[in-house]
Design brief:
Blueprint lengths: L1 H16 L20 E7 L5 E7 L37 H13 L26 H8 L4 H10 L8 H9 L2 H19 L8 H8 L9 H5 L2 H24 L5 H14 E4 L4 H8 L4 E8 L4 E8 L12 H17 L18 H6 L21
Parallel strand pairs: 3-4
Antiparallel strand pairs: 1-2, 4-5
Helix pairs in contact: 4-5
């Protein structure tokens, strides 16, 4: 009984294994073999003897699109007549998803507590700070909240009867305040450094001239030309304010500080002589020009202030006959009297007739013209 059982099991296995065709590399992409591949699944019958059953295994060609043509209800005779459909090359969508995720993290949705705060929001590309959160928190401790609130009270962008209440809501919007504090203190940390060390005169001069020292967020600031121009302008105004405080005394309150800044913006150009804006300010007749300089031979930093002033010019008119009389006397003295004295009387100065100027303006060889133009042809007809 035991022997027969073993023999029957052996014959059953050998019989089921005979239906598998030979697998070779030549027919790996043949469609006829797709429906003929079978799998072996052991089952138990009622007598407890395991039997091997075969079921067709549907496999797909690598790189092809799986369609309903490979389903089990299709006859084997129809498969060779069907053309396989190949798909496009595989693409990596992980990078695209990562970029979308990073963009959403960089510019999250901003929710203001006041509906009027959106009029004062900063551009989106300014919101991504260059410093780590711990370092930024240290910089935010120096943010002037009183000056921030004072400036918001001066803005005239809310045309409504309830302007005071609107300004009060905007000042209390912590989201807007955090937005401005991050931008302002990031620019301050880039220009003056993130430590509490007092900047050297060389560093102040370089930043004033636009040569920012390398820092962690330098690339972040230079990639935003509008923000860089505003930060540089604020730094130059700050330096000029310090210069005036040293000469004229300290600023008493915020109202006086605003008057200083308005004066700078209206009547001053504060920059460098080498900049094209200096020439534009001269052509625009700015009342005052201010710049900094450095003498490397003396290691000396200098400040230059130019002011627009009215020049008093004296304009007079000489009698034409008086001029001709001097020229006639000059001809007689040189041609007839042959006076070659360099200190002769005819070339001495005269406060009324301006004899030295009129003698020099005579035609050569008697006079000494400053400029002699070429011959000019004038048509009479």
């Amino acid at each position: 009984m035991r022997t027969g059982s073993c023999k029957g099991r052996k014959n059953s296995f050998s019989m089921n294994s005979e239906i598998f065709p030979d697998w070779s590399d030549e027919d790996i992409f043949e469609l006829e073999s797709i429906g003929k591949k079978t799998g072996i699944h052991p089952i138990k019958n009622t007598t407890g003897i395991q039997q091997m059953t075969t079921n067709p295994i549907i496999t797909s060609i690598p790189g092809s699109l799986e369609t309903q043509s490979l389903s089990s209800d299709i006859n084997d005779e129809e498969l060779p007549n069907r053309t396989p459909m190949y798909g496009l090359p595989a693409t990596d969508k992980g990078k695209h998803r990562l970029m979308e995720t990073s963009t959403q993290e960089m510019f999250p949705a901003v929710v203001f507590s006041s509906p009027y705060s959106h009029k004062l929001k900063v551009p989106e590309n300014w919101r991504s700070g260059p410093f780590p959160s711990l370092l930024l928190q240290e910089l935010l401790k120096s943010f002037p909240e009183d000056w921030y609130s004072f400036v918001l009270n001066l803005l005239d962008i809310f045309h409504s009867d309830e302007k005071k209440s609107i300004i009060f809501e905007v000042i209390g919007d912590t989201t807007l305040k955090d937005m401005y504090s991050h931008v302002v203190m990031s620019c301050s940390g880039i220009m003056l450094g993130t430590d509490s060390i007092i900047p050297s005169p060389n560093q102040v001069f370089k930043v004033y001239s636009g040569d920012l020292p390398w820092s962690l967020g330098l690339d972040w600031l230079t990639q935003k030309p509008e923000l860089l121009a505003l930060a540089l302008k604020a730094f130059r105004y700050t330096f000029k304010l310090m210069f005036d405080k040293a000469c004229l005394g300290p600023v008493e309150n915020f109202a006086e500080l605003v008057s200083y800044l308005e004066e700078y913006d209206k009547n001053w150009f504060i920059g460098m002589v080498s900049e094209p804006q200096w020439q534009q300010a001269v052509l625009q007749e700015k009342p005052y020009l201010f710049s900094l300089g450095y003498d490397p031979s003396l290691s000396l930093y200098t400040g230059r202030v130019l002011s627009l002033q009215e020049m008093l010019l004296h304009v007079g008119q000489l009698n034409a006959e008086a001029i001709r009389g001097q020229w006639a006397n000059l001809s007689w003295e040189l041609l007839y009297a042959t006076n070659d004295d360099e200190e002769r009387y005819s070339i001495q100065a005269h406060p009324v007739l301006l004899r030295n100027l009129t003698v020099q303006s005579a035609n050569p060889p008697l006079g000494y013209p400053i400029y002699s133009s070429p011959s000019i042809h004038v048509s009479l007809f």
